[in-house]
Design a protein that fits this description.
Blueprint (H helix, E strand, L loop, with lengths): L5 E5 L4 H13 L5 E7 H6 L8 E7 L1 H10 L9 E7 L5 E6 L1 H8 L5 H19 L1
Antiparallel strand pairs: 1-5, 2-3, 3-4, 4-5
Helix pairs in contact: 1-5
Pfam families: DUF302
Protein name: DUF302 domain-containing protein
InterPro entries: DUF302, TT1751-like_sf
Length: 132
C-alpha cells in the first residue's frame, strides 16, 4: 500500500480506548474544535456490509488553518485536520493522519513554515497521547 504523505502509528490500547483518548485530548484543548465525527463501521452496517472499527474525527483551529487557505485555498480539500482510527483483521489498532509537510508540498504553500511545523508538532502530540 502506498502511504505517501500519511503518518501512521500503532496504538497500545484497544480501539474504543484509543478513539476516546483522541477525542478527549482534542476536546480539552481550547485551541481546537471538533467539526465532525464519522463512524465508517456504522455506515457500512447501515447498508448490510461489514467493516472493522473505523472512525475519523475532523477538527481544526482557524487561527492556523485560515492563513494556509489564504496562501492557497485548495488546501481546503485537506482541512480541517483529520485523524483516522482503525482496527485491522488481527485486532491491531492504528491512527493515521496527513503529514503537514506533505500537504505543504502538495498544495505549494509558501512562507508558512512556522504554522506547518506547529501543526505537525500538535498532531504528533495528539496522536501520541491517544496511542500511549
Amino acid at each position: 500500500m502506498n502511504e505517501t504523505g500519511i503518518i501512521s502509528k500503532i496504538s497500545h490500547q484497544d480501539f474504543d480506548t484509543t478513539y476516546q483518548k483522541l477525542k478527549d485530548v482534542i476536546e480539552n484543548n481550547p485551541n481546537l474544535k471538533i467539526i465532525v465525527e464519522l463512524n465508517h463501521q456504522t455506515n457500512a452496517s447501515s447498508v448490510g456490509l461489514e467493516l472493522n472499527p473505523t472512525r475519523i474525527i475532523m477538527f481544526g483551529n482557524p487561527n492556523l488553518g485560515t492563513p494556509l487557505m489564504q496562501n492557497t485555498q485548495i488546501i481546503g480539500l485537506d482541512l480541517p485536520q483529520k485523524i483516522l482510527v482503525y482496527q485491522d483483521d488481527e485486532g491491531v489498532v492504528s491512527v493515521s493522519y496527513n503529514d503537514p509537510l506533505y500537504l505543504k508540498d502538495r498544495h505549494g504553500i509558501t512562507n508558512q513554515e512556522e504554522i506547518i511545523n506547529k501543526i505537525a508538532g500538535a498532531l504528533d502530540k495528539i496522536t501520541n497521547a491517544a496511542i500511549g
